[in-house]
Amino acid sequence: MTHKTTQLRDAISFALIAGTTALAGTGVAFAQDAPPAEQQATTLDRIEVTGSRIRSVDAETSQPVLVLSREDIQKQGVTSVAEVLNRISAAGPAINRTFNNGGDGSSTISLRNLGDSRTLVLVDGRRWVSSLGGAVDLNTIPSSIVERIEVLKDGASAIYGSDAIAGVVNIITRDNYEGAEVSTHLGQFDKGDGDRKTISATIGANTDRSNVVINLSRVEEGSVMAGDREQSADPVFGLKTRSGFSANGKIWNNAPIVDGDPDADDYNPTGFGNLTVVPPGSTGIGPDGQQRYGLDQFVPYTSAAHGYNYATDNYLLTPQTRTALYLKGRFDITDSISFVTDALYNERRSEQQLAGFPLSGGTDLGNAPDTALSGESYFNPYNVAYGGDGRDVQWSRRLTEQNRVYQQNVKTFHTYVGFTGNFQFADRYFNWDVGYNFNKSDQEDAQIGDANMLAVTAGVGPSFLDTDGVVKCGAPGAVIDGCVPFNPLAPAGTMPQEQLAAILFTAQDAFQSRSESFTANLSGEIVALPGGMMGFAAGIESRKESGFDRPDAFVAAGYTSGNARLPTAGAYDLDEIYAELLLPVLSDVPFAQLLEFSLASRYSDYSNFGDTVNSKFGFKWKPIEDLMVRGNWAEGFRAPSIQTLFRGTADSFESFGDICSADNPGRTSTIAAACAADGVPANFIQQTNAGFGFNGQTIYPFSFGGNPNAGPETSTSKTLGLVYSPSYVQGLDITLDWWNVEIEGALSTPTVATILDQCYAQGNQTACALFSRRADNHQIDQLLMAPSNLAVIDVEGYDLGVNYRMPETAYGRFNLGLNASYTAKYDIQSTPDAEAENVVGMYFDRDPNWRLRANASLDWSMGDFGVTWISRYYSSLVEDCGFGALCSDPDRRIDAGPAPRNKLGATTYHDMQARYELPWNGTVKVGVNNVFGKRAPTSYTAFANSFDPQYDIPDSSYIYMEYVQRF
User: Fold this and answer.
1) Is 477 within a domain?
2) Number of structural domains found in the chain
3) Which domain holds residue 482?
4) Beta strands in 530-626 (DSSP E)
5) CA-based, 20 to 30 A from 466: which of 32, 102, 251, 820?
C-alpha cells in the first residue's frame, strides 16, 4: 500500500510543515472584533431567488430553498457537483460513479426520490443540456466554477416549465471576480486506490465598464476494483456464488443419446451443464497449439469447483477524467445596458469494466442463429472422426482473455449571449434581459470485448486439420476463405490470439443531445399596495430539443454478442409565455408584520403533444417578527423525453420470475389455469442463464422501446412551513416544511413481473400481447417494454433545517447545522385502478426508499484555523430476500405464504476537515471522509457488489489534501 500513498503523504506532510512554520512565526491569531454596526455599510440589493423571477430584497420566499455556498461546498472534500448534491438530505438515488454495469460515467440528481428527469437543473437560471432520457449529467459542470447552489425543494413549472416537478437545482457560477486563484486536490482511499487529482486556475479582471472570469480545470478520478473490498469480492456477499459460465469451456448437452437422435435430450435439465474441460495445463489430443480435447479430458461441472467469480474483474468505482474551460464576461454598453456572455467546453473520458463476455452457443441457450459447435468441427470431442457420436455441442465459455470495457468521450459545449439592462418608467424601476442559450453534448462510445457472432457462427462450423498442420474452416477441398476456426471449449487463458482476434469486436457508437432557446424577461414594480410595491415578472421562451443515438452498424443489426439496439433520433420544439405577480397585502400591523401573496402561470405549446397551462399560488405571513409562515400550491408537468418518444428497440437480458414456472412460490390456481390456457405445461420450469429455477436472468433478450404517443406527466405540489428566527437567541434559524407531490399519468416502463402479472393474474390481454413463448420449451423468448402514462405517485414528507451561528467566544466561533428530510408516504400505483403500495422504508434494486436522511455539521473556527465535522445519516431499509439463513428474517410469513426479508441497517458516515489560512494568502486543508471506514449495509437484491451504489465505498476512508493559493 505504501507505494500508492507516497504522493498524498508527501503533500500532507508539506501542508502540515507549512502550517506549523506559519504558526511559529506569527503566533495564534484570534478573530478580530467586528466594527460597530453603525460603521458597517448596508446595501439592500434586489436579488432573484430560485423559484421566482421577481427580484426582491428578501431572500426568504414562499417556497423552501436550500443554499449551499462556495464555502459549504469546499468543506466537503469532494471533486464534483454531483457528489455535493447527492449528499443533501432531500436527494434520492441517482446514477453515479459506483454504477459500473449499467453506468455510463454520468452523475445526476433526483430530489424526493422522484427520478432525475423530474428534477430541473439550471445553470445561472438557464436550462442545461440533458441526456436523451431527460436528465442532466452534473459531471458536465465543473465544481471549480460554482459560486453557490440553490436547491428549490418544490415544484416550479409555472416559472421554469417542464421537468420542475420534484424541485429545481440552480447552479450559480462565479462572476465579477477580480484576481487569480489556483487550487488543487489530492486524495485516495486508505487502501491505496481510488486516487483523485484536481487542479484549477481562475483569473478575473475588472475595468470601469467590464469584467471577465476565466477558469481552467482538470479532474482525474481513479478506479477501485470490486475484488479489493470484501463486501464486493463475490457476486453475493456471504456466499461463494459463481457464474454458470465457466472460464473453461463447458458442454451443456452431454446426456445419452435417445433413440439414436443426438439432439433428443438437448433440452433436458438433468443433462445440461454436466461437463467442463479440465483446467489449463492438460494436454490436447490434436497437434500442439490446436487445443482439441477429447471427452476423457472433461470432468463433471460443479459450481464450487469450476464456476467463475466474475465480480473480481469488475470496477467498484469507475474512473474518469474531466477537462474544462469556462469563460464569463460582462461589458457595459451604457450605464443601463450590458452585454453578457458565458461559454464552457467540458470533456469527460470515463470507463466501465466487466468480466469477459459469457459466450454461449446453441439455440437451447438462447442463441440465434444456432451457434452450436458443429459435430464436424475439429474441436468437437463428439466428432465422428475421433470416435464420437457426431452430435452438435451446446457450449458456453467466458472470454477471460479480454475484459469487457466501455469507454465514453463526452464533449459538452455551452454558449449564452445576451443583453441585460434596466430602466425607469413612470417612477417605476424595471429590469430586462434577452438572450440566446445553446447547449450541445457529443458522445462517442467504444465497446470493447464483445464478440462478432457472424465470426463465431462461422468458426464453430465444420473444420478440419489440413495437411499443412493448420485447422481450417470447411472440409478438405472446400476451405471457407476468411473464416477462422473457433474452439469454445478451450481452458481459461489458453485461447489462441488468432481466434480471439477473429471473434472479438469493438463497437463505435455516437450520441448527441442538443438544446437551444431564445428567452426574454421583464420584471419590475407596478403599483403601491398596503404592504409595499406590487412586483411582477413576465417572459417568453422558444426552445428546441433534439438528439440521436447511432449505434454501431453491427450492434444495430444484432450481429454482436452484446445487446442489440436500433437507432434513436427525434426532435421537438415549444413556445412558452409566463407571468408572475407578487402582492404585498400588509406590513407592520398587528399580527401581520408581513403578508404577501404570489401568483404565477405559464402557457406551453409543444409540437408533439399540444399545449398545457400550469399555475401556482403562494403566501408568506409574518404574524410576529420572529416567525414566518409560508405555503405554496403549484401545478407541474414533465414533457416526454426524446428517448421516451423515439427510442429504437433495444435488447436487455432481464432478471425476472416466470409466473408460470412450477417453482413460483406465489403461484395460485388462477395463475395456473391461465398458464395452462396459454399452453404452458403444469411441470414447466423457468430456464435461466445459470440453469433452471424461478427468478433468474433470461437467456433470450427482451426489448425496450419508445412510445411516440406518450404524453406529459402532470403534478400538483403543496408545501406549508414555518421559519423561526427567535430574537432572544441571535444566530438561530429553524425551518420546518411539510411537502406533498402527486403525479398523475406518470411515465413508467412496466417490468417483466408487472406484464406477466397483468396477463396471467389479471387477465389483461393487452399485456399478454407484449410477449411470446417458444413452442418447443415454452420459455418466454420475446417481450416488449415501452413507457406509458399509467402510473400514479403520491409522496409526502417533512423537511427540518436548524442552523445556529453561536456568538464568538474566547474559544472561537461555532456553527451548528442540521438538515433532515423525512418521507412519511411514497405511494405508487402501476395504473390508476391498481392498489397503492407504500414503499417507504423498502429497498429495491438500486432504489432505496429511505424514510429519513439527515446531515448534521459542527464547524469551529478561531483566527486562521478551522475544523468541520459532518455526519450523514441514512435510515434502515428492508428488502425481500431469497438467501435463506443470510436473511435477517428468514422465517417471515404472510397470508400468501413464506416471505423472508432482510434488513439493511441504518448507516451514519462521518467526515472531518481541518484548514489553515496561510500568511501568504493561501489555504491548506486536510480531511477524511468516512472517518471510521463504515461498511455499507449488505443487500441481497442489489444488482452488484451486495450494496447499493448510493452508499460510500465500503471499508474505506477517503483521505485528501487541498491547497488554494490566491493572488
Assistant:
1) yes
2) 2
3) 230-302+355-399+447-508
4) 532-550, 568-589, 592-606, 610-624
5) 251
